[in-house]
């Protein structure tokens, strides 16, 4: 399995969309766990990094910084 190269403040698309109807998530914290924030409603979710890598579909906006 290829290692996905994501970083803080990237906007990503997950395999399943959020119940609010959007599928854009911003990475707001990284460590052993990854905290992502829904771009639609602002809800944030903390998930383990391994699970995040598996559930992430693609990077939509790469943060420049």
Helix content: 10-25%
What spatial form do the alpha-carbon principal axes imply? globular
Extended strand count: 5
User: Strand order within the widest sheet?
Assistant: 4-3-2-1-5
Mean pLDDT across every amino acid position: 91
> Uncertain spans, ≥5 residues at pLDDT below 50?
none
State Rg.
11 Å
Largest sheet: 5 strands, antiparallel
Write the layout of secondary structure elements.
Blueprint: E1 11-14, E2 25-30, E3 33-38, E4 44-48, H1 49-55, E5 56-61
Antiparallel strand pairs: 1-2, 1-5, 2-3, 3-4
Structure description:
With 65 residues, this protein is mostly beta strands. Helices cover 11% and strands 42% of the residues. The protein is built from one helix and five strands.
């Amino acid at each position: 399995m290829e290692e996905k190269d994501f970083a803080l403040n990237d906007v990503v698309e997950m395999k399943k969309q959020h119940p609010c109807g959007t599928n854009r998530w911003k990475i707001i914290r990284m460590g052993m766990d990854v905290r992502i924030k829904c771009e639609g409603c602002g809800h944030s979710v903390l998930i383990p990094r391994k699970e995040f890598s598996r559930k992430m579909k693609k990077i939509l906006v790469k943060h420049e910084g």
